[in-house]
Design a protein that fits this description.
heterodimer, A: six-stranded mixed β-sheet, four-stranded antiparallel β-sheet, 7 helices, B: 2 domains, seven-stranded mixed β-sheet, 14 helices, elongated
Chain lengths: 232, 385
């Protein structure tokens, strides 16, 4: 792997959770590199540390030991405030249960990350329209989440993730709550974002059908990366 | 500004809960405004009391009388500039108890000189001096009974019946206004000479004296000197500053200020619990959403500010509307003009109320806001998984 092309570098990362006096080692000495423009699938059984690893890469949580570098920045060394600003600028998140705000319409959900930028209202509107067009949801922009199907809600979630044009898209079981048809549409959309717009995507999934769309699969078990399988 | 619509959307999330919280805050601040108005009605006279004026009454009680001759003796006491007597007449219009109002016989010239806050045109003053049965009436009282200059007003006094049939008749010769908003304009003043000649008993006696001192700084010494002047006489006096007299009069009903604070403290404590509970519930229900906002890049401080603004928005809408309604109710005038003639909500209470509104919003929101600020993103997102 060409080291200059690496976007995410996770080095010797440990993550320990505490439950009372008990220590739970979720990740142990893990190394992972993700090149720019890759669509990586993280697979593994429940409790293997997939989501924890995703959270560390996205700066949503901090490693107990080790370093996490994204785009040349050591995010494990950033302050809370610095990390929040970094996330706003560089990371788009897609969740299993969409996590849309029920009180906002689709377009206003998509606009949320743009509230943290200096864009004017009209500029924000343009960005939202573009994101809606990318996910094919222009006609549903004024609808509230409860008025959208699961697939449409997830497309809204993806539009919200890409509206700031982030470097990295992190998807936690993006098709986990969808039927096969809607799931396929979402995976197709992610694949298109990867291939056509060059987005680097890290996707956590249980589903071999979903991981088959990725360019590389990484397996995790008991907090350790034990094999990698490049896709054809 | 860009976050206002987000705050507004969150407030609309549970419309019933938000409405009930708003309503409770609204009622609390209507109550605050009206209690402040009542407090002002009882104690407002203190604010217009002259620092250079004393009230001299019988040592035993206000209802006991003093000789009219004391006036001249008081004016001879060192430090006294002038003295004028007044008497509680207790006039009732058309013999209807509800038509009761404050009415007082006095000497016109020294009275108007001692109380410059009573604004009477010069020609009306002259008319009063010329008309033995003349009376000057406050604007509020004139409006209450739709009187006008020249009207002849029959009054009955249960204390001071007129010789013969007991009824009195006065002619309105002037309408006075107050120099300040707190000046009582519900009074009815008429000439003492007409009163003293006509009353069936108690001639030569008056209710109390208003005294102007030459130097307000010496008021306490002058009061003592007046009391010494009449010590060991059948009519011993109690002289005190006008402000203290008005306060003492109000406190015959009770310590209005203390009662007010006790009621409002209970009300605001309850409202604080209601509003605080609303905000705490609202934050608890949105743990995942707050986690998502933070995951997107909303800083801890921004999340804190958003929750606090939400809490303040509820308090501001409910509280300021409540204050506005209280002000409107008060500005319609006293519901019991014979008991509380001065009835308005002073601007200072509106500012105090606005401060309380903001304080309520901040205090009710601070704990949930800190809780939201400290929320760990991974933990918040795991709750949904």
């Amino acid at each position: 792997m060409n080291t200059n092309n690496v976007l995410v570098r996770v080095s010797n990362v440990n993550k320990v959770f505490h439950r009372g006096s008990e220590e739970i080692h979720v990740l142990s000495g893990l190394h992972l590199e993700v090149p720019k423009g890759e669509f990586l699938a993280l697979m593994g059984p429940s409790g293997s540390g997939k989501s924890t690893l995703l959270n560390l890469i996205g700066g949503l949580d901090r490693a107990t030991r080790g370093s996490v570098e994204v785009g040349g920045a050591r995010i494990d060394e950033m302050s809370d405030r610095g990390l929040a600003a970094w996330r706003a600028r560089h990371v788009g998140l897609v969740f299993q249960f969409y996590n849309l705000l029920p009180v906002l319409t689709a377009e206003r959900n998509i606009e949320l990350p743009l509230l943290l930028t200096h864009l004017s209202k009209s500029e924000r509107r343009k960005h939202v329209e573009t994101a809606l067009k990318v996910v094919g949801l222009t006609h549903r922009s004024k609808h509230y989440p409860r008025q959208l199907s699961g697939g449409e809600q997830q497309r809204t979630g993806i539009a919200r993730a890409i509206v700031t044009d982030p470097t990295l898209l992190l998807c936690d079981e993006p098709t986990g709550d969808l039927d096969r048809k809607s799931g396929d549409e979402i995976l197709g959309l992610l694949q298109a974002l990867n291939r056509e717009q060059g987005k680097t995507i890290v996707m956590v999934t249980h589903d071999p059908h979903a991981s088959a769309r990725a360019s590389r699969i990484v397996y995790l078990n008991k907090g350790q990366l034990f094999s990698e399988k490049p896709q054809d | 500004m860009r976050f206002l619509s987000l705050i507004w959307s969150n407030l609309k999330r549970k419309k019933l809960r938000t409405s009930l919280t708003l309503l409770s805050i609204f009622v609390a601040f209507v109550l605050f405004g009206l209690l402040c108005t009542i407090n002002e009605a009882f104690t407002g006279g203190i604010s217009v009391a002259g620092a250079d004026r004393l009230i001299v009454r019988h040592k035993v009680s206000l209802i006991m009388t003093l000789p009219v001759t004391y006036g001249r003796r008081m004016e001879q006491v060192s430090g006294v500039a002038s003295a004028v007597h007044l008497t509680w007449f207790n006039g009732i219009y058309k013999n209807e108890p509800k038509n009761f109002f404050g009415s007082f016989p006095t000497d016109p010239e020294p009275f108007l000189a001692l109380y410059p806050e009573i604004l009477l045109p010069e020609d009306r003053k002259q008319a009063w001096l010329k008309t033995r049965t003349g009376a000057i009436v406050g604007r509020q009282l004139v409006e209450r009974f739709k009187w006008k200059i020249g009207d002849r007003i029959p009054l009955v006094s249960p204390i001071w019946p007129r010789q013969g049939d007991g009824a009195w008749e006065f002619e309105i010769v002037g309408i006075y206004d107050g120099a300040k908003k707190a000046t009582d304009t519900s009074g009815f003043y008429f000439r003492y000479d007409y009163f003293d000649e006509g009353r069936s008993y108690g001639k030569g006696l008056v209710g109390w004296y208003g005294v102007r001192v030459k130097d307000p700084a010496q008021a306490a010494d002058v009061a003592k000197a007046i009391d010494n002047e009449f010590a060991n006489s059948p009519y011993e006096t109690k002289a005190e500053p006008e402000g203290a007299f008005v306060q003492g009069f109000a406190q015959q009903i009770g310590d209005i200020g203390t009662i007010l604070i006790a009621i409002l403290s209970a009300v605001f404590f309850t409202i604080l619990l209601v509003a605080g509970n609303t905000m705490a519930q609202s934050v608890r229900e949105r743990t995942e959403e707050l986690g998502v906002l933070k995951a997107m890049g909303f800083t801890n401080e921004l999340v804190l500010a958003l929750v606090l603004l939400e809490s303040c928005a509820i308090a501001l809408v409910g509280g300021l509307t409540g204050l506005a309604i209280a002000w409107l109710i008060a500005s319609r005038g006293s519901p019991v003009p014979n008991m509380l003639p001065v009835f308005y909500l002073p601007v200072r209470y509106l500012f105090i109320g606005a401060g309380l509104v903001l304080g309520l919003g901040l205090i009710a929101g601070i704990l949930p806001a800190v809780q939201a600020m400290r929320l760990q993103i991974a933990h918040a997102l795991r709750r949904n998984a």
